[in-house]
Amino acid sequence: MNSLFLSIYYITMKKLLLFLKKYLIVFLLLIYIILAYIFDFVSCPIKLITGFPCPGCGITRATISLFKFRFYEAFYYQPCIFILPFILVIILFKNKPFFRSLYNSKILWIILIIIVISIYIIRMIFIFPNEPITYNDNNLILIIYNWLIEI
């Protein structure tokens, strides 16, 4: 009886760990989005370090806008937001035959990267440094630079 219980427990824990491992990124992303929504903060490591927005700038605000069914606002914050569900479905179901072929398609990923970079360049030319992609004056590089100059 005891070994049967341990076997069931072991199998259950193993399945749970595989599930968590498989969906960890999605789970952490959802937690981040929920916390950003509750505490009304958005922080991008690249923007905090360099001051410049990254190609994904605005994705958290866009996702929150999508959850509120504000599609125009989501597009305003990050035009690539409507590509994200497509990418998530491919990643989550990559073990299914159809999605495996998409997941392993170099052409698809190259096209998606070109789209994201093109939109980023257009936004940097026509919108930067205005909302929604602004410059962070309190970035780490500038703080270190100013500190070194004072020495």
Notes on the structure:
With 151 residues, the chain is mostly helical. It starts with a helix and ends with a helix. It has one domain. The mean pLDDT is 84. The radius of gyration is 21 Å and the shape is extended. The protein contains 8 helices and no strands.
Major pleated sheet: none
Instruction: Kindly provide the radius of gyration, computed on alpha-carbon positions and rounded to a whole number of angstroms.
Output: 21 Å
The total tally of domains equals 1
Quickly count the helices.
8
Q: What is the total tally of β strands?
A: 0
Overall 3D form: extended
Distance between the termini: 71 Å
Order of helices and strands: HHHHHHHH
**Helix content bin:** over 70%
SS strand fraction: under 5%
Spans of at least 5 consecutive residues whose pLDDT stays below 50 are none
- Alpha-beta classification: mainly alpha
Mean pLDDT: 84
Gist of the model:
This protein has helices spanning 2-39, 45-50, 59-67, 71-77, 84-92, 97-103, 106-126, 140-150. It is mainly α and 151 residues long.
